[in-house]
Amino acid sequence: MSELRKDPIIDRWVIIATERSRRPSDFNSSENQPPTGAFCPFCPGNENRTPPEIAQWGRPAAAPPDSTGWSVRVVPNKFPVLQNEGDLNPQGLGMFDFMNGIGRHEVIIENTRHDWDFAGATPFEMREILGAYTSRLNELRRDERLRYIVIFRNSGTTAGATLAHPHSQVIALPIIPKQVKEQLDAAREYYERKSRCVFCDVLRQEMSMKDRIVETNEHFIVLSPFAARFPFELQIYPRRHSHDFTLMTEEEAAMLGETLERNLRRLKRTLNDPPYNFMLQTAPPQRPSPGRPESWGTIAYDYHWRIDILPRLTRVAGFEWGTGFYINPVSPEHATQLLQGADV
């Protein structure tokens, strides 16, 4: 029988429609990768075909910028959704609010190899990529115009990738998105009532039940959430309470790289290399809000950063758009069992 399940953090309901359950092999992943053409602007030797680089790892400091020899490279997106230059200039038009499209949109080119796979990265490669994430978060937080920074990766055409060369993206926004604000507000309200982090309580509950725990290690917990929106959805949480991704120790960062690579490999082996999105959910820049000095007073105690991994195996259709409910045909418990059995 189907179940209605509620996300314990933001009260979002999903339908776990187990009667629609399918085997992993029933999900079609044949269109995962974007078409590979003769020219790729992210490959070594084509550095002059991207906007001037912002940062790089691997090339000696004395080497000229935008030259070969790099291992990870950060460049502005050639077709940004937001522009860096200018003022926000918020305005009202009757009951409507608008502002200039100011922000940042960057690309992190993760490897020189065009056919490199995140689900096979070495510890050194993962350490450089996660170091690039930390570096960009710290740098962009200095811009007083920016209120939220999201780092994400689209793998496969269904997940939104338009270039096959492995890369992540960074978008910095002048506002906090509604979905993020709902989580921040819920976390603060829970802490005000109970003096505990709601995410830590969820992790304690999941660890006691063990039905949805895919992996645990010294520093991280990987789980399929109770109210998963999508089949084989995963979340990676630090075991140590921390609101900010950039506060990881070197030991934690090394283990996160191994954990992330291993669980992407689980998905690849179980689901035949599915398209997926992963997003880093971390605390926003903690800027005082006019008239609301208490806005960030407890965030170090009430929020808990994580990485969400969403395989793109089903389509969001009319019911989801019309109701805000999601229909998941694979129970998180069944997904957990299959992923635990993957040969990694």
Secondary structure blueprint with pairings:
Elements: E1 3-6, E2 13-16, E3 55-57, E4 72-76, E5 91-93, E6 96-98, E7 104-109, H1 123-140, E8 148-155, E9 167-173, H2 178-194, H3 198-209, E10 213-216, E11 220-223, E12 234-238, H4 250-271, E13 276-281, H5 299-302, E14 306-311, H6 318-323, E15 326-328, H7 332-340
Parallel strand pairs: 2-15
Antiparallel strand pairs: 1-2, 3-4, 4-7, 5-6, 7-9, 8-9, 8-13, 10-11, 11-12, 12-14, 13-14
Helix pairs in contact: 1-4
Helix and strand element order:
EEEEEEEHEEHHEEEHEHEHEH
What's the average pLDDT? Answer: 91
Radius of gyration: 21 Å
CATH architecture identity: 2-Layer Sandwich
The CATH topology corresponds to HIT family, subunit A
| Category by helix and strand content | alpha+beta
User: What gross morphology would you assign?
Assistant: globular
Describe this structure in words.
With about 350 residues, the protein is α+β, with helices and mostly antiparallel strands. It has a single domain, classed as 2-Layer Sandwich (HIT family, subunit A), CATH 3.30.428.10. About 25% of the residues lie in helices and about 20% in strands. The strands form 3 sheets. A 10-stranded antiparallel β-sheet has the order 3-4-7-9-8-13-14-12-11-10, sandwiched between helices. Strands 1-2-15 form a 3-stranded mixed β-sheet. A hairpin with a 2-residue loop joins strand 5 and strand 6. Helix 1 packs across helix 4. The protein is globular and about 60 Å long. The chain starts with a strand and ends with a helix. About 35% of the residues are buried.
